[in-house]
Specification:
The protein is an alpha+beta fold. It has a single domain, classed as Gcn5-related N-acetyltransferase (GNAT) (Aminopeptidase). It has four helices and five strands; from the N terminus they run βααβββαβα. A five-stranded mixed beta sheet has the order 1-2-3-4-5, with helices on both faces. The radius of gyration is 15 Å and the shape is globular. The relative contact order is 0.15.
């Protein structure tokens, strides 16, 4: 981990992830994916390691509690003509179930947004399940709005 910032009244500290904390980040990603019913694959583990090792790709943060980790977020950098430059996609945002409802997700988002602004990021995009009203409400409270465009994706190559 690099510096410590974002100490919140909620009992969490937001820490940018460095090479020494990849195992902690992977443990949180495993928990997130397990909770969602889809295990983390080796290709995803490698993508997380690469994201941390190559900062030009994006950033990762851990939400650390007093005794253990409470969540994490990852963003990948993009470039957007519409945004007028560097943009980011929020790939994962996760707070462990026992720590939800205490404002820690908001703390994590506030800190990562501050970091991204400092890195010249002009816009953040994210995806949420259309039917997940709680998650949609959370992002709307943070100033995000649903985009009327439909997101399409396609997996390329032979991926596991």
């Amino acid at each position: 981990m690099r510096g410590m910032r974002g100490q919140g009244r909620q009992g969490g500290v937001v820490l940018p992830v460095g090479a020494g904390a990849v195992d902690r980040l992977l443990a949180l990603a495993e928990a997130f994916h397990r909770e969602g019913g889809h295990p983390l694959h080796d290709s995803q583990r490698q993508a997380i390691r690469l994201l941390v090792a190559e900062p030009e790709l994006g950033r990762a943060w851990i939400l650390a509690g007093k005794h253990d980790d409470l969540g994490y977020a990852t963003c990948a950098f993009t470039y957007s003509v519409d945004a007028g430059g560097r943009a980011a996609t929020l790939d994962d945002l996760y707070v462990v179930p026992r720590a939800r409802g205490r404002g820690l997700g908001r703390l994590l988002m506030t800190e990562l947004e501050d970091d991204l602004v400092g890195l010249g990021v002009r816009a953040i995009a994210l995806m949420a399940d259309e039917g997940d009203r709680r998650t949609r409400h959370f992002y709307e409270m943070l100033g995000f709005s649903a985009n009327p465009l439909v997101t399409f994706s396609k997996t390329l190559g032979n991926q596991a």
